[in-house]
Amino acid sequence: MKKRLINEVIDMSYLNADLQKVNYQIDMKVNMEQSIFQRIFDIISNSDLYKRQFFISSFQHNIYHIQRVMLFSQIIAQNECISEKDLKLLLLAAALHDSGKIRDRKDFEHGKNSAKIAKRYLLNNISSISEEEIKIIQIAIEYHTVQEKEKGKLNIVELEKLCKYYNVSIKNLERIKIISSILKDADALDRTRFNKQNCLDVDTLRTNTAKNELLINFVKNLNQRFAIAILNSNYRYDYLTDNDAIKTLSVVRKKFFEDNNGVGKKERLFPAKIVKKIFKDASIEKVNYETKKTMKYRNCGSLYIGGTGDMFLCKDKSGEDYIFKPAYRKNTDIYQPYRAEVQVLASKLQECISPQTAVRCEHYEINEKKGTIQPKIELDEIKTKSISEYFLNDSKIDEKLIKQFMREYVIDFCLCNYDATFRNFIVDVNGNLRGVDKEQSLKYIINNSEEERNMDFFMEQNPNEKYGAKPTIYGKIFKDIISGNVSISVLEELREALTELYAIPNEEYMKKFESYINLIDVDSKQKDLIYSNILLRKKNINAVLEVLKIKLDEKTQNDEVEL
User: Fold this and answer.
1) Please, are residues 83 and 290 in contact by the beta-carbon 8 Å criterion?
2) Predicted structure pTM score
3) Which of 329, 459, 460, 542 is most exposed by smallest CB count within 10 Å?
């Protein structure tokens, strides 16, 4: 079997295709916040309905399948122009359609069983839903397992029988037909998760939207992304088989099964917010860059913050404050574009790992000087000072900040940023930690010392000591976790941040670094080494949890000896 590197996996070429050549353009942008989709998605994702042993151990019918079918139902529905009222019924049917399933193989009775469970669940958990609407949902759920006589055609006779069985007025038949069609199609589209050729028969699809080539490509890409995320979070591997993450996952699962005497791996499931992120990353949004408006900023003069380089205070049209930082060697007119690029890169990584606290940074040019511009953050001076007091004087610090430091740690470790001192963190007026001034990121990415090869997971080294700089704040934080001065519960935030990191396919991740690597003034051999070291840090950072466990176990054993 031909094997290829992971970073070659996802073929995104279709994203650049002329939309007119793939049937017609459809709307695949789903509102993940403050929408009926978001509300039902969160309810079902947090319920105990799919936490039974079958769904936990199942690779093919776990909560991921339910979440994807909901997404596909939403996309089809918004393009088939169904009413908001019927959309609610459709999404509830999608959320509950496999609730009665008891096996991965053919289970023709699970439609009936799921319909019964759906009724009980809806009565106990969903308000403002009528008895008639519950019955419509039940019909759609039961019908999704019905074998149709003709490909792509609803079995109207069977639907009428179900209407009679559930005592639903025949006047609702048209509503039931569209809801059932969409649910069937959404469920069928997710067959692309299987490691089988031609697992999706397009001729069996009923709606024009489901048959659209653009949607089918999106579905395939989404399932590839899920496979990558599962591989990265649960298995050790270096290559993809036949450039196919789904196939690779199947091979890896089979090998684990064989190596462990017929016992499959209990894979860790992602929380709902990670699934939403995978959805978002896979979404296709056609951007018209020619009409995209560029924000204009007005230079309001020099700004002095500590010992940093040149900075300028700017305002936008609404009067909001921004900071412009020229990308020049300190105290010179020598333009160094990588200085700006690395800060934009750091901002992009923050948006992936810690979007709530990310410092948005963009390329910008003012008065013929090129650099970056970012919002000026309004400080909570007391909480910001608490960071320096914690580092310098061992004072207490808010646990919320330590949790946010865990996310910043993942970012700074990946960026090999040893300038992550206490001075480069502030707290905004909303109480959120903000990591700023990451201009020195990747400065030490080429380090062939024995320490670097073994990974300085706690970032305790201080290569900037010769400049009079303090070490990173992370060494102290991890030391305090091991000693018990900081609660071990903060590591859950670290685990979540790592999960979000590994949900990013390696190809997509390395594309974020391409511009920076191309801009730095080194030879091709060094650029290859930088590329390899960046990817190596992403692959290896997960081991910090193993190192911490060893340290914590050693601490426990030492405490027992002292007693």
Assistant:
1) no
2) 0.59
3) 329
Residues 358 and 397 in one domain: no
> Do 114 and 196 reside in the same domain of the chain?
yes
Q: Can you say how many angstroms the Cα of residue 6 is from the centroid of all Cα atoms in its chain?
A: 18
Exposure on the CB side of residue 320, measured as CA atoms within 13 A: 11
Residue 269: inside a domain: no
Q: Are residues 367 and 399 in the same domain?
A: no
Local structure of 121: helix, strand or coil: helix
Question: What contacts 24+ positions apart, CB below 8 Å, involve 168-175?
Answer: 168/132, 168/135, 168/136, 168/139, 169/132, 172/132, 172/136, 175/86, 175/89, 175/136
Residue 432 in any domain: the answer is yes
* pLDDT of residue 418 exceeding 90: yes
Cα–Cα distance measured from residue 363 to residue 234, given in angstroms and rounded to the nearest whole number: 37
What's the pLDDT tens digit per position in 234-292? 887 777 888 889 999 999 999 999 999 989 898 988 899 899 988 887 775 433 323 33
- Two structure tokens written together for 103: 């096996």
Final residue before a domain boundary, out of 211, 240, 269: 211
Give the Å distances, CA to CA, from 494 to 276, 412, 419. Answer: 19, 13, 20
The lowest-confidence range among 182-191, 196-205, 449-458 is: 449-458
Separation between Cα atoms, residue 530 and residue 121, nearest integer Å = 53
Count of domains for the chain: 3
Asked whether residue 311 falls in the same domain as residue 452, the answer is: no
User: Within a domain: residue 467?
Assistant: yes
Give the type of residue at 119. Answer: K
The reported pLDDT for the residue numbered 102 is 87
